[in-house]
Amino acid sequence: MKSVQLDLISYDMLSGMTPMEKIRMILDRVRDGAVVILERGLTPEEEAKLIEYTMTEIEEDFPGIEIESYPSEAKRSWIGRILGKGIVHQPRLTIIGPAEQLKTTSKDRDFISAVISMKDE
Amino acid sequence: MKSGDKMGIFRRLKRNVSSLIRRIFKKNSTRIGIYGPPNAGKTTLANRILMDWTEEEEGFGEVSHIPHETRRAMRRNGIVINANGGVVKLDIVDTPGLATKIDFHDFMKHGLKEEEAKKRAKEATEGVIEAIKWLDDLDGVLLVMDATEDPFTQVNVVVVGNMEARNLPLLIVANKIDLPSASPQRIATAFPQHPMVAISALEGHNMEELYEAIAERFG
After folding, report:
1. How far is A84 from chain B, CA to nearest CA, in Å?
2. In Å, what is the CA distance from B64 to each residue of B38, B40, B61, B88?
3. Which chain B residue's Cα is nearest to A50?
4. Helices (H) and strands (E) in chain B, counts
5. Residue A36, C-beta contacts closer than 8 angstroms, at least 6 positions apart
């Protein structure tokens, strides 16, 4: 029976990694055909980096990734307001998979519906 | 004094303070990037801005229905927009469409031959990287969304998040309102924390409101 591997990564595991380690770990798993679910996702900067690195790896048998997350919760501390610092984002659950297998069917602020298909051998 | 008059005074004061800060730091123009998913109408908008505010006959680039027509960032400097009393001098960067996947088979569905489709896909990946790199060198972003499409794409979420994290101004442009299925309200609901203007860059609808918002947001 054909199957799809789901890798569920906890917030604790992810928070102990550098941005580059996170991106490498995600891309390696997705390129192996797994669908990765992050308990808490990536920061906006990390997501931009992930897209950038994905582009460098695109080839005939790897057209890229599907990534979906709930929009992150934006928070700004009172110190941040005084210093004019940017908003701190609290990433939320994120799902990442091979583009040819993971398809998002609908997405809203707090709801994601996706279909995972088997890869043709 | 009416509340509208008070608001007008406040806006002019804000513009004057921004202008003063730019003069102090010897920065006389604001560099903004036009971002969005492929086929949202970024280059159509960039060409429209050039047509409305410069005498250049050549636009930013070609537009077409095939995704990733723009595969290199194009920049024009010193575009002066004067709207409703607000003046802003912009360096505008029209960026390639952002995407998380690029499959050459999709280009073949648009009639391109395999070799040409693969070349276009390769150039499109480089364009996405270039667009992401530009995020580090901008003062603000015009995020163009197709008002007939679902606004909750990850590309939109990533651009909004990156601007918020950098504390830089963002103006959302709900494009293609000339199409019957357009729903700019859906975009406004998706990103309520940012100002949005609904336009048709192709038909030139509502451009005055957009220019006022640009002068207000980036001036």
Report:
1. 8
2. 11, 11, 10, 30
3. B100
4. 7, 6
5. A7, A9, A26, A29, A30, A95, A96, A97
Q: What is the pLDDT of residue B131?
A: 96
Task: State whether B125 and A74 contact (CB < 8 Å).
Answer: no
> What pLDDT band is residue B71 in, cutting at 50, 70 and 90?
confident
Provide, as residue numbers in chain A, all residues whose Cβ is less than 8 Å from the Cβ of B190: 71, 109
| Top-confidence residue, A99 or B70 | A99
Give me the residue from A51, A106, A109 closest to B158, CB to CB.
A51
Pairwise CA distance, residues B98 & B101, whole Å: 9
Closest in A48, A64, A71 to B102, CB measured: A64
Q: Where are the domains of chain B?
A: 26-218
Tokens 């400097």 belong to B77
Residues B132-138, mean pLDDT to the nearest whole number: 95
Q: How confident is the model at residue A85 (pLDDT cuts 50, 70, 90)?
A: low
pTM across the whole model:
0.86
DSSP state of B136: G
- Looking at residue A81, its pLDDT comes to 62
ipTM: 0.87
Domain B26-218 has CATH 3.40.50.300: yes
**How close B51 gets to chain A, by Cα (Å)?**
32
Do A55 and B102 count as a contact with CB atoms less than 8 A apart? yes
Q: What distance in Å separates the CA atoms of residue B106 and residue B121, rounded to the nearest whole number? A: 9
Across the interface, whether the CB atoms of A87 and B167 are under 8 A apart is answered yes
Token code pair at residue B130? 């270039």
Region of A84 please: left (phi>0), alpha (psi -120 to 50) or beta.
Answer: left
- Can you give the pLDDT at residue B198? 98
Identify which of B133, B152, B161 has the shortest CB distance to residue A108: B152
- What per-residue confidence (pLDDT) applies to B10? 61
pLDDT tens, position by position, A45-64: 999 999 999 999 999 999 99
